[in-house]
Amino acid sequence: MPTVFRGASWKITMYFRDHPPPHVHIVTSSRHEAQLRLSDLSVFAGHVPPSVLAQTRAWAAANHDLLREKWSALHPD
After folding, report:
1. I need a surface site. Which of 8, 28, 47, 55 has the fewest CB within 10 A?
2. Residues 6 or more apart whose Cβ sits within 8 Å of residue 53
């Protein structure tokens, strides 16, 4: 599971050949996890604290193209 970005108390990761829709995994240092859909940055599984969600959404929005490229690289057709 490659780490795409590491914040102070959380990280954004992707799995190789993971299930659709394109998404990232948010993992906190306190072991909370959520899956964030790339299309609209909505959580579709799991739960993380609201402050972490706000930080990860802001980072994902600013780095949307990078995340799409990483998803494509890890999920070849």
Report:
1. 8
2. 26, 34, 43
The CA-CA-CA angle for residues 30, 34, 35, to 5°, reads 150
Instruction: Dump the DSSP string for 14-63.
Output: --TTPPSSPEEEEEETTS-EEEEETTT--EEEEE--HHHHHHHHHHHHHT
15 C-beta neighbours (distance < 10 Å), count: 13
Nearest CA to 26 among 57, 71, 72?
Answer: 57
Measure the N-to-C terminal CA separation of the chain; round to a whole number of Å: 19
Are 19 and 7 in contact by the 8 Å Cβ rule? The answer is no
